[in-house]
């Protein structure tokens, strides 16, 4: 994979608008799945931060909790989201499939939904 692969990526506006052709290259697939995971994670964490700020705005130390929520909403896709998006793109590329931009949205938002389900379930307490 050369640096040439990453120079021809779609703009963020085209990714959000789902207005691109089917994705064939690994870098295109990875980029779009990752951006959707990042956007959906930030959306969920910003809502949670707003709720936390509204509930804890008068607390001396609690008012800083929303900052931690937003930071985790950014760090989580930047660490785990990069890896899982690369795995999804790698499977598509190895199988020789093209990925429609709508599937990139489903895979990216699906990662966030999966993290939400695991977070709200009691499965982590059993490990």
Describe the protein in words.
The protein is an all-alpha fold. The protein has five helices and no strands. Helix 3 (26-56) crosses helix 5. The protein is elongated and about 55 Å long. The mean pLDDT is 88.
Task: Provide a short characterization of the protein structure.
This protein is an all-alpha fold and 127 residues long.
Helix and strand topology:
Blueprint: H1 4-7, H2 12-16, H3 26-56, H4 65-95, H5 101-120
SSE arrangement, N to C: HHHHH
Shape category: elongated
| Helix count from the secondary structure assignment | 5
Q: What structural category do the secondary elements indicate?
A: mainly alpha
What Rg do the Cα atoms give? 17 Å
Mean pLDDT: 88
Q: Residue share in helices?
A: over 70%
What's the N-to-C terminus distance? 38 Å
Low-pLDDT segments:
none
